Amino acid sequence: MANIGFIGLGIMGKPMAGHLVKAGYTLYVYDIMHESVAELKSLGAIPCRNSKEVAENSEIVILMLPDTPDVEEALFGHDGVSAGIKPGSTVIDMSSISPIATRKFAEKLAKLGAEMLDAPVSGGQLGAQNAALSIMVGGKAEIFEQIKPIFEKMGKNIVLIGGNGDGQVCKVANQIVVALTIEAISEALLLASKAGADVTKVREALLGGFAQSRILEVHGERMIKRTFQPGFKIKLHQKDLNLALQTGRDIGVSLPNTATAQELFNAVSADGGAELDHSAMVQALERLANFTIGGK
Amino acid sequence: MANIGFIGLGIMGKPMAGHLVKAGYTLYVYDIMHESVAELKSLGAIPCRNSKEVAENSEIVILMLPDTPDVEEALFGHDGVSAGIKPGSTVIDMSSISPIATRKFAEKLAKLGAEMLDAPVSGGQLGAQNAALSIMVGGKAEIFEQIKPIFEKMGKNIVLIGGNGDGQVCKVANQIVVALTIEAISEALLLASKAGADVTKVREALLGGFAQSRILEVHGERMIKRTFQPGFKIKLHQKDLNLALQTGRDIGVSLPNTATAQELFNAVSADGGAELDHSAMVQALERLANFTIGGK
């Protein structure tokens, strides 16, 4: 079994790294948070002083970090992965970051003789804990096949989308659809409720036809029952839509409703709702309508 | 069996009326199009000279007309239903029209001793032909129960949503969700495609998670395969979103993404696409991006 490095032991990374240790892999770990490192050490992982040391000891280096600049710093910054990586190694970036930056990182790593896969996930903290993440992968097919047994320790729905960056593109597309479907359900249920209809019955009727979606099932119910504990936090979805809008600007795609959805998230955040579930986007429209679903 | 009147024998009304004649009802029919009336006559329906004459001969009067002013004219205009209707009769408006106007019409009919149900449908021409329409009903529960056997000759998923107008509210909510989900899929697949990913694989990956919807299944595939024959025509969805936006203005609900979706429909129409399937909304975004899904 290959030695694995794991950089980034946050809400997502910690349980993911834990699954690998439990599966018997020798795991070298690094995070700026000492508590997280100590927790992994107690499971059997080996702490490192920096990302370079992780890379020196591992054939496979996994990153699970908040955003594009964090990944760039861990890979190419002072004492970063690139300073310690051996030719023939593979870097797997499971963070959700810019597809365009991802392609540049893969090119720079290739010059050092290292392969790269981008492998962002969906499924959140619960998916990470239960090893039930969806994993959207970009990179070479032969590298994907080599790494697949490792992905299977962390996730269930594991799909190779295409070349480097395409996993990140798929994740961005996913987050656009999720946010805009939440927005669609918000407009429809709010209009129905303020017009005097029973939204529970409207939701049921809509689930029987072309308006059906997982979001109408799950998030539509949250809007009606007013249960906005996450779930998936608005502040994380803001980051994802920022990636979408940035990618749209970079490659020249106009995303009008993504822009509006982001502004509605911003409005809920401005009112203290950044930690709420993303279905709380409806609250911004409710404020504009001076009316809450259910008539409260 | 009650005598039934049927006013409006268009693309939808003609097959719906046909099912009632075949089921053995005595059907009095009226339409301004003589060919449609003649066709129903050949099946056994009895032609009338105007809506008043339909009402004089029927205990139940069904309307299936294009828009709010058409329904108002048929009910309360010269030689309209209200001039011939008998106390104890029931008017069933199966057109998709304004929920607010619907409530006014129900009040006016109540003063003449007549009941009213609003019962807009979804499922399109094919649903009408196959007696497989979804029917969203507003009105009194006891009237709904009386009429249900008649609805069952024309549809399958038949739901009482609430009081007068609530069937129309539900239909408007349905059309908002459908249009905005088409828009969401359009933004996501276009971004993914212009970013270089294989949209077929992106769509498959998205179907496995929270981005899943009937629209992603059906209309997402149409966007990828470039099959834009209707289906449901853009010009009809424009009418429905106009109802949504008008209702939003009337009751005070801001519908920002519905407004954008309508403008995108308007752009496709301006380019000659009014008769295309509503999934062709993607063409407006494609024009803005100077790129077509699949890279053509």
**Termini Cα gap of chain A:** 58 Å
- Can you count the beta strands of chain A? 9
Give the helix level of chain A as a range of percent. 40-55%
Oligomeric state as shown? homodimer
Shape of chain A: elongated
H-E string of chain A: EHEHEHEHHEHEEHEHEHHHHHH
Return the structural class of chain A. alpha/beta
In DSSP terms, counting alpha (H) and pi (I) runs of 4 or more, how many helices of chain A? 14
What can be said about the biggest beta sheet of chain A?
Answer: 6 strands, parallel
What is the mean predicted local confidence, pLDDT of chain A? 96
Which regions of chain A have little confidence, pLDDT < 50, spanning 5+ residues? none
Could you characterize the architecture of this molecule?
The structure is a homodimer of 296-residue chains. Chain A is α/β, with parallel strands linked by helices and 296 residues long. Helix content of chain A is 54%, strand content 13%. Chain A is built from 14 helices and nine strands. In chain A, the strands form two sheets. Chain A has a six-stranded parallel sheet with strand order 3-2-1-4-5-6, sandwiched between helices. In chain A, helix 2 links the parallel strand 2 and strand 3. The termini of chain A are far apart. The model of chain A has no long low-confidence stretch (mean pLDDT 96). At the A-B interface, strand 9, helix 9, helix 10, helix 11 and helix 12 of A face strand 9, helix 9, helix 10, helix 11 and helix 12 of B.
